[in-house]
Amino acid sequence: MTPITEVDGRRVALSNLEKVLYPATGFTKGELLHYYATTSGVLLPHLRDRPVSFLRYPDGPDGQVFFTKNVPPGTPEWVTTAEVPRSEGAARMVLVQDLASLIWAANLVTEFHTHQWLVRTPEEADRIVLDLDPGAPATVVQCCEVALWLRERLAADGIEAYAKTAGSKGLHLLAAVRGASGERVSEYAKELAVAAERAMPRLVVHRMTRSLRPGKVFVDWSQNAARKTTATPYTLRARREPTVSAPVTWQEVEECRAAGQLMFRAGDIMPRVQDHGDLLAPLLDAERAAALP
């Protein structure tokens, strides 16, 4: 029988709690749910009011992995959903607004991915994201070098950037913006990527072409398109170990000297939150959002 628990007055069915999802570490589904419950205080603000795409891996990262964008079958009626625009027409997606809906979604075994806009203003981006993806033998060390250059370039335009790990190989830069469409933010992000390549041609590439990427950092600007999503801060990733897309300080970026230095797992996150709070909290402050040049 599937156990039922009560979360903030909602009945949530939990299943297969002893199932090992990450064989390399023995990390179970129960531990995954515990992780999301304990980090909900910092995770939920980054999910709230943003349509969510789920990357599901019910049998662990070595099993079937698939994206779910539409409202999944069997979604409880109390989970908030919203109709959102898509290029192929409107669709209905989930909004993870509270702890109960977070635990319900986590029980599906998910990475959380969100757009760079809020559900009430899908025509206006409120974040810009740059995904720094290293092509071997480049690592996150080279991503940090590029991130520091981009931080200064953004600052020159009056935009304050923040960093988080991708939870895999690379680094994400984010900033709060206002008053621009996804198309305009994408254009600006591409301008930044091109400028970085011109400044560091031996280190940076702004095109997705695979043959250009070995030994360089691909600055992926395309995730700013309205239809695209990026791994949400604090989400677990479907990797060999339960790694997390974790916010990092600029001091950590500056001091990164080894590929594994900015790799954080589920157990690392709450001690970091206790030490630093939510390093990405400024992204949630509309008054700190900058207009694009």
What can you see in these coordinates?
- There is one protein chain.
- The chain is built from 7 helices and 17 strands.
- The strands form 4 sheets. Strands 10, 11, 12, 13, 14, 16 and 17 form a 7-stranded mixed sheet that branches. Strands 5, 6, 7, 8, 9 and 15 form a 6-stranded antiparallel sheet that branches. Strands 1-2 form a two-stranded antiparallel ribbon.
- It has helices at about 30-40, 40-45, 100-105, 140-155, 180-200, 250-255, 265-275, and strands at about 5, 10-15, 20, 25-30, 50-55, 65-70, 80-85, 90-95, 110-115, 125-135, 160-165, 170-180, 205, 215-220, 230, 245-250, 290.
- It has about 290 residues and is an alpha+beta fold.
- β11 and β12 form a beta hairpin.
- The mean pLDDT is about 95.
- The N and C termini lie far apart (about 60 Å).
Keywords for this entry:
293 residues; 7-stranded mixed β-sheet; LigD_pol_dom; EC 6.5.1.1; DNA ligase (ATP) activity
What is the tally of helical segments?
7
Q: List the secondary-structure elements in sequence, H or E.
A: EEEEHHEEEEHEEHEEHEEEEHHE
Structural class designation: alpha+beta
SS elements, strand count: 17
The low-pLDDT segments are none
- What level of helicity do the residues show? 25-40%
How would you summarize what this structure contains?
This protein has 293 residues and is α+β, with helices and mostly antiparallel strands. It has helices at residues 29-38, 40-47, 99-106, 140-156, 182-199, 250-254, 266-276; strands at residues 4-7, 10-13, 20-22, 27-28, 51-56, 66-68, 81-84, 91-95, 110-114, 125-134, 162-165, 171-180, 204-205, 217-220, 230-231, 247-248, 290-291.
